[in-house]
Amino acid sequence: MFSARLLVIGLGVALMVVASAEPILAQTARPLLVEGADAKVLKATVSGPEFAANTLFVGVEDPLCADAKRLRKDYQLDDVVNGEAGEFRKLLKLRHWVHSRWHIDNDQNFNGGVFEILERAKAGDGFNCSHAMKVQHAVMTAMGFVVRDLGVQCNTEEYPDGFHHGVNEVWSNEYAKWVLVDGEYDFHFERGGQPLSALEVHEAARSDGGRQLVKVQGPDRTAVPMKGLGFPFTSAIGYWWTSYHVRQNTFTQSQGNESRLVIFDNEAFRQTTWLRKRGDNVLRKHWAYDANAFVATRDRRQIEWTPGVCELQVRQRAPAELEVLVSTSTPNLKFTSVRLDGGDWRLLEGGKLIWKLKAGGNRLEVRTRNVLDVDGPIVTAVVMLGS
């Protein structure tokens, strides 16, 4: 690790303007910290998504395990996304595939595994959100996505019969963010054409009931009414309460017993109480209060950590020469690659690069690739060196 670093000030650039349905990535250039920078380093900036480490969640799925390979092959998941070039479009096609496996039966209490659910669905059984969450988690894992499970609920003081609801979030490299995806009802929420995380929907629900959000359904992202099938838990106000399962490897390690829930320690959590109905149909405090199972954090970056994203630590080790350390929290990392000044991508060995600078502009790009050959977002450093 480097010691205290000097700040090399650089001018930011305007946020990239794109069509509403296209990704808006974190392209605004921000200052790049360089330890020991001399006077010839005139400006240093970095752009792309900011790195946030995984410090709260445990467990990593293995997309190369026998069950993941079986799921991908036996259910022809590659055919589901065949011909789709965009990663997010693939994600939506897979979500739609899960949604189309069975009819909704909220009274179904079957507690079997993914393959048993899918086989019973073939025979005509219906299933509910917990099954959709489980199957979608498995499908996304098998196809190389990083996915996690959530429990959400509307304000039961206003809607006392509102169901607790199980959904997933999937990390989108294309948008460089977590995106909420409801596999049971085949929808997500957007604002300005950009898909939202569960935390963003939660904050919107608490702010104004989510009136600025759009609910979109299916691979074509068709806008649908908030007060549709399953209301209120299928609307933005269904995220009045939002928690994240700490354990993230529920498909390939289905027998684990981790039961803690990460929750954002905001004013909503501190000033109100999460109530749920239990078997006797009486509203009581969520079980996690008495069990001390809530893992509360005020740092949203701990919740919205960044799979696939690289962090750069830079120091000057000689005139016109920088040492760059590259780190990442990418699950199932295959390798990290780098590219200098628009040249060819090459493997980064040992997580360290010696970057020889020339007078003028110098550009370094880094990205990750996982074991299923899914590339992470590009992080770009630019250094201006005086002559």
Feature tags:
alpha+beta; Immunoglobulin-like; ten-stranded mixed sheet; six-stranded mixed sheet; 9 helices; globular
Your description of this structure?
This protein is an alpha+beta fold. It has 2 domains: 6-51 and 306-385, Immunoglobulins (Immunoglobulin-like, Sandwich); 66-303, no CATH class. The protein contains 9 helices and 22 strands. The protein has helices at 66-74, 77-80, 87-99, 114-122, 129-142, 198-208, 267-271, 287-290, 300-303, and strands spanning 6-8, 30-35, 41-47, 147-153, 165-172, 177-181, 187-191, 194-195, 214-217, 222-224, 241-245, 261-264, 275-277, 283-285, 294-297, 310-318, 321-328, 333-340, 346-347, 352-356, 360-370, 379-385. Helix 4 packs across helix 5 (129-142). The chain is globular, with a radius of gyration of 23 Å. The two termini are 30 Å apart. 40% of the residues are buried.
How many helices? The count is: 9
Low-confidence stretches: 1-20
Share of helix, binned: 10-25%
> How many DSSP E strands?
22
Structural class comes to: alpha+beta
Major sheet characteristics? 10 strands, mixed
The dominant shape is: globular
Quick recap of the structure?
The protein has 387 residues and is α+β, with helices and mostly antiparallel strands.
